[in-house]
Amino acid sequence: MSHIHVERLEDADALVAALGRADRIALDCEAAGFHRYSDRLCLAQVTALGSTWTIDPLAFDPSDLLREPLERTDLPVVMHGADFDLRLLSRDLGIRIRGLVDTQVYAALLGEEGLGLASLLESRIGVKLSKKYQRADWADRPLTDGMLEYAASDTMHLERLLDILAGELAEMGRSSWADEECLALEAVADLPSDDGDTLDPVTRIKGARHLPAREVAAIREALAWRDHIARQRDRAVFRVVGDTPLIEAVGAHPRRVEDLIAIKGFPGGLARAEGKDLLRRLRAVRERDEAELVPYPKHVRRGPGRPPPELEPIVDRLKAVRNEAAAEIGLPRGTLLSNAVLLEIARAAPRTLQALSEIDGMRSWKVEVAGDRLLDALSRA
Predict the structure, then answer these.
(1) Strands 77-79, 25-31: parallel, antiparallel or unpaired by DSSP?
(2) CA–CA separation, 197 and 274 (whole Å)
(3) pTM score of the predicted model
(4) How many domains does the chain have?
């Protein structure tokens, strides 16, 4: 299969022609979040009519090139594990895919344990993908030929994999299940980004909730210092300095740059270049009036967690139904219904299958598989 790298719109004529004639296309994206502060879109891979193109969105804006085919409802776009890529395309290119077919969704509905693309390609097609560039910095330029070939391999086999998985699903009578799940997955691009900008950063630090307000404030300042440097250098925050040495530095109450250098795992170069600013920030926290300190947030959203006491017995009955139904159809429990959806069902207490189907996270196939038993469990409340 041929592979063409596109760095200019003028070089995309063959791609435009292929997208106009194809009855489906395969798509994947690469981002830079592992290395860079920004997880921006760095590469898009497209396979159509037997050829593969790698498209460089850092060299030119490909949004007009890709928008029409990717937003057509009658042109299937084959992806694998599309959730993050859908958000990238929406945020960075303003493109919202409307014909999604996700091979990871297909595999999940078959009850597969290994849902990674490499695992599925090896088990179904006998293709073994290289792992050489799994942690590559896709924002770096120029991209090597090896990196481009690696990226292109992610879409070259997707259509063939889809045909195999779709055939297996059809034999099990689950094709409509995949259609529903892929349609629901498309909507993630329209949801607000959960990038954590509105969350207090100290909530990500284990054990911080039990610290006094002044220690919490010091940790918050240290995290803000690291974030500022990461943004300036366009580096992932953990590549500036890890959580453990940073929090240890805060707890050591450093007064000099040498105190930072003495902390195991704290980069000496970082301490010498930026340490004085961190020391200044920590000193300001020590001198702050008690009334000015912001303690650990009292109410932190942490997902569904444990249900409230009054709903706990209802959720337990719903879980028993879910577990039984999942075992019957050979799917992981969470693939059928997550605990978060069960909690929403308990809260809404629907009395009809129609009302049950309107709860976020439910699908027609899930109602068909377990709806009557879920309503029966609710009626025994």
Answers:
(1) parallel
(2) 23
(3) 0.85
(4) 3
Per-residue pLDDT 10s for the chain (381 aa) are 678 999 999 999 999 999 999 999 999 999 987 888 888 999 999 999 999 999 999 999 999 999 999 999 999 999 999 999 999 999 999 999 999 999 999 999 999 989 999 999 999 999 999 989 988 999 999 999 999 999 999 999 999 999 999 999 999 999 999 999 999 999 887 766 554 456 899 999 998 989 999 999 999 999 999 999 999 999 999 999 999 999 999 999 999 999 999 999 999 999 999 999 999 999 999 999 999 999 999 865 545 567 888 899 999 999 999 999 999 999 999 999 999 999 999 999 999 999 999 999 999 999 999 999 999 999 986
Judgement on whether residues 134 and 245 belong to the same structural domain of the protein: no
Side by side, the strands of the sheet bearing 51-55 are 2-6, 51-55, 41-48, 25-31, 77-79, 100-102
Same domain, 317 and 269: no
227 and 277 fall within a common domain = yes
- How many C-beta atoms surround the C-beta of residue 40 within 10 A? 17
Residue 260 is part of a domain; what is its CATH number?
1.10.150.80
41: nearest Cα among 26, 27, 56, 52: 56
Q: 236: alpha, beta or left, given left = phi > 0 and alpha = psi -120 to 50?
A: beta
In a domain, 298, yes or no: no
